[in-house]
Amino acid sequence: MPIQARHQPLTGASQEAERKESVMVFVLDRRKQPLMPCSEKRARYLLERKRAVVHRLMPFTIRLKDRQAEESTLQPVVLKFDPGSKTTGIALAREGATEAGVIHHALHLAHLEHRGETAHQALQQRARYRRRRRNANLRYRPCRFLNRRRPAGWLSPSLRSRIENVVQWSRRYQRLAPVDHIEVERVKFDTQLLQNPEMTGMTYQCGELAGWEVRAYLLEKWGRRCGYCGVTNVPFELDHLLPRSRGGSDRVSNLVLACHECNQTKGNRTAAEFGHSEVEAQARQPLRDAAAMNATCYALVQALRSVGLPIGTWSGGRTRWNRSRFNVPKAHALDALCVGDLAEVDVGKLRTLRITALGRGSHQRTNVDDSGFPRGFFMRQKRVRGFQTGDMVRAVVPSHLKTGGIHRGRVAVRVTGSFRVGKVDGINAKYCQVLQRADGYAYTLI
């Protein structure tokens, strides 16, 4: 029988406490060495008794004053990644042993949102600016595409940005928690198996993962919606565009996601006879996206080796299989929790930290309009009165002013000293206090 996610039955007040989602707090010793994370209640207890100080707000981290790592018992902690083109799921889990095998208890969940599309658009905009200046016979930089070669393993800036984000956060979590190894989903789709499902000699085809690679790929390809009616959030079935009773094969180009109603209504007809000829064209699209994801995942694993921790790699089919047999809801962070060879998972009641990559500014110091003409210049110095755009600040403004009140958020500085904090504009710098310096990311608890 399938193993369910581990939840202990609770009654009364315990149920009310269990319904409240919490956040695990990272803990450092007095030498800034990582200890085991603790609960919010424990962190509040230590802060109230002056045994700890706040080290970082996001992710929330405290530093103990009276303890060293040698005096504490550390348990094995694994850092898990579920890479995606736009969002990467991150999970920190504590490993435990059961009679059935290894159980992973969730300690921290996060969604890392990449800025690959922003980088791609910025490069396209720069190319348009240069093209306009060349066509107008203005001062421009000559083309250099004829005398440059791309090195081996080259990746586009948008993909390289995603890899650098993951590597950077793997190093950060290594400084915040006693991580002893990393598990990452490397091969998202087995394209050879998708194209040739009849091949033999592969052990996993006859094992418990048979068919899960194809299902995982079709869910991504069709956007988790019915190929005929477009409905979402329903159980899907695999439908053959050319039915098997009429000579159709199990190749991925002959498969489409379908809800139960559409599958039953279509019956023994082809997709064209069913009135959806456009579905056949979409189903025959090549596997370029899957191949690109595979290449990126391999490059990500190579980059993660620089962290210096043992790395385990797994396929996307196994991740989805684990999530199905543990009855874990669909989410990027929970997908990361289901990566690997597991016997059980303890999801818990954790809030997810959304990490949005914003970058650290721009090399371009001239502000231009839509046509590429300069309309202003950025400040030469990035700091104004001790603040920098992107810093998380707390502003306490007197009530008699227009912006009176307590405001907290990311700050946008101006040389005049009138800042924007969050969505509130016109706050004087003298009312602001730095909570956390800018690190190129924005944080939200969801």
Describe the protein in words.
Strand 18 and strand 19 form a beta hairpin. Residues 1-19 and 200-208 have low confidence and may be disordered. Helix 3 packs antiparallel against helix 4 (157-176), helix 4 (157-176) packs parallel to helix 9 and helix 6 (212-221) packs across helix 10. This protein has 3 domains: 13-116 and 156-189 and 289-357, Ribonuclease H-like superfamily/Ribonuclease H (Nucleotidyltransferase, domain 5, 2-Layer Sandwich), CATH 3.30.420; 191-286, 3-Layer(aba) Sandwich (His-Me finger endonuclease fold), CATH 3.40.1800; 381-445. The chain is globular and about 75 Å long. It has helices at 13-19, 40-48, 116-135, 157-176, 191-195, 212-221, 260-266, 277-283, 288-304, 316-325, 332-337, and strands at residues 25-28, 34-38, 52-56, 61-64, 77-82, 87-97, 102-113, 179-187, 236-240, 255-259, 311-315, 344-346, 352-357, 366-368, 374-377, 383-384, 387-388, 392-397, 405-412, 418-421, 424-428, 432-436, 441-445. The protein starts with 12 loop residues before the first helix and ends with a strand. Strands 5, 6, 7, 8, 11, 12, 13 and 23 form an 8-stranded mixed sheet that branches. Strands 21-20-19-18-22 form a 5-stranded antiparallel sheet, with no helix packed on it. By secondary structure, it is an alpha+beta fold. It is built from 11 helices and 23 strands.
